[in-house]
Specification:
Layout (H helix, E strand, L loop, with lengths): L17 E2 L2 E2 L10 E7 L6 E9 L1 E2 L5 E2 L3 E4 L2 H4 L8 E3 L5 E7 L5 E7 L13 E10 L13 H19 L4 E5 L5 E4 L6 E4 L10 E3 L1 E3 L2 E2 L3 E3 L5 H14 L3 E6 L11 E6 L8 E3 L14 E4 L20 H10 L6 E5 L10 E4 L8 E4 L1 H5 L6 H11 L33 H9 L5 E3 L2
Parallel strand pairs: 7-8, 11-12, 11-13, 11-23, 23-25
Antiparallel strand pairs: 1-7, 2-6, 3-4, 3-9, 5-6, 9-10, 11-26, 14-20, 14-22, 15-18, 16-17, 16-21, 19-20, 24-25
Helix pairs in contact: 2-6
Amino acid sequence: MMYRPTSAEETADRTPSRFRIALRHISGVHPSPHVALLSRDPETGKIRDVLDGVTLERALDGSWATPWMTVVADEEDRDAPWLRGEALLSRLGDVVELRFRAGAGRPRFSHRTVGTRSKDGGELAILALNVRATVLRTAVGGPPSVGGDARGAVRVIEDQLDVLDGVLAQCHVKVRPRKEPMIAIADPPGPALVHIGGMYGLAASGGEIRLAVDGRKIEPLCSERGAKPQDTARRLSEALMARGFETTVALNAHTGREAYPTSDVVVRRKDGSLAAVGPWAKGVAISSDSSQPVEIAAVDLSDGLDAYGAEEIGLGTLEERALLRAFGSPEKGIDFFVVGRFSDGAKQGESFLANGAIGPAVILDGRGIARARQAYALAHEVAHVLLGDPGHPDDSGDGRTWLLMNSRSASARFGPKRITAEECGIIRDNASGLLEPLD
């Protein structure tokens, strides 16, 4: 059984798959003509949807069967006038059951599974996407950015992941939470990232880098004349590790405006927690190198998260990298972060591709979260990552506002957003390397 959406804008390549359940070789009396059709999560046993009063039809061979029905993954699809009474809400991996009573006997059932867990199932095979969500507090020790409190934040994110799961069902992809905790609540990262190279990524002209870590002054590090940012970052990392700290060196995406790619160094304590990096003293310059700046980055959400511009696609802002490099996970899947708002006041979400320097990741703000079933912001940004493409169909003149990937469709209409067959093919080919067969 395969999920395919249906809509008023149905096209030939999106004809919904239909299904029916037939009852054969029933011993004893005939089943009652009215039965219940339901879907349930096989892991939790929770019933997702029920259709009562389904009338069985008698086939020429004497068997009984339901009318042709449609499996849908979105509540608005289920309630669409052209599908009323014929659509059953379910998700990939759900068990669809037909419950009936043969005469006065005990209730019996026949069931089928939506999709298949077999990796040899072709387009019916369910692929899994692991997602790990982190909700940032508004400030250290403050309330979470959404939901009011920790419990409320978890409920909000569970709903977001449910919406995402329903949208990706069009491509037979199921959202699967990462290892516990599935949803984390965290303080904004403090000053643990040291950035080398600034805006232009120039070679060093020579100077000294003076840092203090957790209040300890680190012996000055001389930047060697002609050294690239990544060379200076490597030497700084070695110096900090020699003093008992753990470091991670990352090469940033080269956007073309830099002479050389810039680098980031994340500093941690031996227990893995983020260290506090700063200058030797207030007012003391971190570096005396005139051509290769050294900056310390933290995440301050009081004025919103700095959002990247056109020149920073793939690179992100310094504040975004301080967030993603602090919490990004090496596990296979997508990291999903939630903040209160972006500083530019316009964006609702941003995506960082798997082939980039800081992806795969998605960041949403409170507006993107609140418009889960209008803008479908999480699904849109996740699809950017799965497609490996930051572009939008409407940038090339495609005006179909019901497409998930159109950038200007957020306010065009309420209701489910569609993924084209071509896009599903790209996603299922797994060019992003993020999907795996559902086990």
